[in-house]
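Researcher: Excuse me, C-alpha cells okay?
***
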Amino acid sequence: MEHCTRIRIYGAGYVRAFDLAGRTASIGLFMPVASGDVSGNVFDAPNAVYRAGIGDARIRLAVNFLGGPALKPVDFLSKAPTTMLGGSITVVAPTGQYNANRLINIGANRWAIKPEIGLSQPLGNWFAEVSAGVWLFGENPAFLGDNRRRQSPLGVLQLHGGYQFRPALWIAADAGFYTGGNTSVNGINNADRQQNSRYGITLSVPIASGWSAKLGASKGLITRAGGNYKALTLALQYQWFNH
C-alpha cells in the first residue's frame, strides 16, 4: 500500500511589538487546528486513519540586540533598513489533542523550546538573512501506552534571501538544514537521526490598507530520516500601529 499523508493546518496568531530596555521586542502566540488523512502499512498490514483537533500552542519572545532601537511609529516608518542582530525563544506547549493508545496524534504530548539567533542584512532593495537555533524536547511519558519517548536536540540552520519591491511586497528564497533529533523509547535508541534539508520560496503581497497575504511553497531536498513532504502555506496578516 502506498504511504500517503495529507495534513491541513489552520491557525490564528497575534504578535505584539514593544519597547524592552530601549530595544525593539515582540511576543507572539499561535494556536493551530489540524486535520489529516494518513495511510500506509503497519506491520505489513494496510491501514488508514483520520485525525482532527487542536494542535500544540506556541509562544515566541524576540528582541533585537543590534540595529533595532525602539521607535515611535512615525520614526519607525521613515527609518531606513540597517543590519540587525536578534534572538528569540520559542516555547511549544502540549495543548494538542493526544491519545496515548494511538500512534498518530495531533499533539506531541511534550514541551519543546527553541532558542535562536538571527542576522539580517539589507543590500539596497535586496536582503539576506541567516538564523541558527536548536530544538530542545521534553519527554513524552505516554507514548503508545505508558512508554517513555525522548528526542535528542535538533539543530536548525535557515537561510533567506530576497528582494523588496516596496513595503509588504517582497519575494524570498529559503533553505533550511536540520541535524540531530534522534529518538528513543524506554532507553532504546531508534535509527532516525536527521540530516535533512529543505528549500522553498515565499511571496508577500499587500492587498488592502494594513493587510497583506503571504504564499509559500517548500519541499525536501535531502531527507535521511523523517517525512519527505511538500508544503503550501497561505497566511493573511493585518498590521497596525498605536499612535
The first strand starts at residue 4 and ends at 20. The chain is about 0% helix and 65% strand.
